[in-house]
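Every protein is a chain of amino acids, and every chain bends into a shape of its own. The protein below has been through that process, and both of its lines are reproduced in full.
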Amino acid sequence: MMFDMLLEEVKPYAFSSNMEDIPFEEITPIVHRIFPSVSEKDAEKIISMLISVIKSEKKEKIDLTITAPITSGIKVRQNQTIVKELLSSAEKSILITGYSMSEYFAELLDLIIQKSQRGILCQIYLNQAEKQMYLDKLMRYKGRFLNVYDYQNSEDKMAALHAKVICVDGYKSLISSANLSYHGLEGNIELGTVIESERIGKQLTDAFKELRFKKIFVEL
């Protein structure tokens, strides 16, 4: 707890100072306030270590995405492009939800299957799996690195998996209103965000892990 307090107080100096210009005279009193018995020399070592750690952390990045007719006035990246880039870039894992997957998604589905055959863990969450196109194909290829889950809710027949999410390598995530269909990625007006963040990636994977644990999603 005390270390976390120190880390938070040092952070502003990490972002405003180069390593060679650390204002030790301003920061060491903070260290001494939290750890009174630390020597001046050790306080400077602690400060240097903390700032080095903070600077090495990946910075979070969030951008708007859109599905809309492309015009010169729209300076926002298209959902269609983002989806292809995310799936193509996956090196460790893919988490993807499919409320509606149409023929339009066939090429991207092939890409996911190829990734799984290379040892990349692919988790696909479906809504009413029995009604989804390509379920038979998914079931032929499912295995250690291709897991297929179906949303279960016997108490409320109107409830559905409505989230549109792709999370790649636990770091890059797309959260949008767009289904994996022609209208979702080209025809409609859809908005979303693409996020580069290990924190958000972990929250997403943990959320779906918990939903599996509670049998809200059941593996096929």
In short: The CA atoms of residues 88 and 111 lie 7 Å apart. The chain has a mean pLDDT of 85. The first strand starts at residue 61 and ends at 67. The beta strands are 61-67, 77-78, 93-98, 121-126, 146-151, 164-168, 172-176, 190-196, 217-219.
